[in-house]
Design brief:
By secondary structure, this protein is of the alpha/beta class. It has helices spanning 26-31, 38-41, 43-68, 70-80, 88-91, 93-96, 106-127, 138-153, 168-187, 200-214, 233-246, 262-271, 286-292, 301-310, 313-342, 347-351, and strands at residues 157-162, 191-195, 226-228, 251-257, 275-280, 295-298. 58% of the residues lie in helices and 9% in strands.
Length: 354
């Protein structure tokens, strides 16, 4: 079997990874057991191959149906002259380009159906107990390291979920916050969470309170550490800066959607000597976090982190299904480049609305 953390090959009866030291539980061993059936062990590869075959077969069927449609043939003949049977498929874009919605053609619909089907299959497979293997993101090790450092120094942790209200990036950040809260409760470290949205405040309070209760220490929960500062951008930044300096924060986590205040928060974290871990899907703010924070979780890793930390089947299955879909898109791009290099007209570009 393989280690669920680093992928190292282990003996069947191993309880600890010899490479990374991770504990291998029965559930993890079952998820990586090589004695399972062929389909279970190679489901991702099978889904990718099936998607390629389905997409190729469906596209060929659409081309065939368009070829047999007299109205299409008549329209093409009127627009481009006599049809050359050996070069007919490249002229099909002339038909699709004349549609009211350039992107709503059969090929794009077929691609979307294929990707959705792959994601649904991987989610259902994960919900039935087949948890896929996901390699650990190096930045996740920094989360436990930062909590450990704050514990050793006897100073609090600060976790900011950004400036957005209740949306996907913020909820993803809240999922990471619950993991940090679990570590903080176990080590007896204080966690401070400044909030900028009033509607997010009760959700944050309840999520953190549930963590303390689940860890068996409900009396350690401090309601005053979940603080609503302001819904104004720089007022919130000023409030977080004040917390960083007054509380002498030892670890700062910046996860969520940030804007111009990102550099202010990160620079003040550096000023107090805090170890900083940041994560955001916003490409405009990533450069500021990269140069000021100790570790940065970039782009898609932001969503993969919550799936890895929570080990929730739906999130794990969705993540793997999206990766298969991305591989399928990369294959289509490669095919499109090759076709562009070898033909004067590229049908894929027109079929996909280009």
């Amino acid at each position: 079997m393989r280690c669920p953390e680093c992928g190292n090959e282990l003996a069947d009866q191993a309880t600890q990874c010899t490479a990374c030291g991770a504990q291998v539980t029965t559930q993890a061993a079952q998820a990586t057991d090589t004695s399972r059936g062929f389909i279970d062990r190679h489901l991702e590869r099978i889904l990718f191959a099936a998607a390629v075959l389905f997409l190729g077969g469906g596209a060929s069927l659409v081309v065939l149906l368009a070829w047999l449609n007299r109205d299409v043939k008549t329209e093409i003949v009127k627009s481009i002259g006599p049809v050359d049977i050996f070069h007919f498929p490249p002229h099909l874009p002339s038909y699709y380009a004349g549609k009211p919605l350039d992107h709503a053609n059969e090929f794009t619909t077929l691609l979307m159906v294929t990707m959705v089907a792959v994601i649904v299959v991987t989610i259902i497979s994960a919900q039935r107990g087949r948890l896929p293997f996901i390699r650990r993101i190096p930045g996740l090790n920094a989360i436990d390291e930062a909590v450990g450092r704050a514990t050793e120094m006897g100073r609090p942790i600060l976790f900011s979920t950004g400036l957005h209200g209740i949306d996907i990036p913020t909820l993803q950040a809240l999922a990471v916050a619950t993991h940090v809260a679990k570590q903080a409760v176990r080590y007896g470290t204080r966690l401070i969470m400044p909030v900028c949205d009033s509607t997010l405040m009760p959700i944050t309070e309840e999520a953190i309170r549930e963590v303390y209760t689940a860890e068996g220490k409900p009396e350690a929960y401090r309601a005053e550490d979940i603080r609503f500062l302001s819904d104004r951008q720089f007022a919130y930044a000023a409030g977080v800066t004040g917390i960083l300096h007054r509380e002498k924060v030892a670890a700062s986590f910046l996860f969520g959607a940030f804007f111009a205040e990102s550099l202010i928060l990160a620079e003040n974290g550096q000023a107090v000597g805090a170890i900083q871990v940041a994560g955001t899907p916003d490409l405009l703010q990533i450069p500021f976090f990269v140069v000021t924070c100790d570790y940065t979780i970039i782009g898609d890793e932001y969503y993969a982190a919550t799936a890895y930390l929570s080990r929730e089947p739906t999130r794990l299955g969705s993540l793997v299904g999206q990766d298969i879909s991305k591989a399928l898109l990369l294959l289509l791009i490669l095919v499109g480049v090759i076709v562009s290099m070898t033909t004067r007209e590229n049908p894929l570009r027109f079929w996909l609305g280009g």
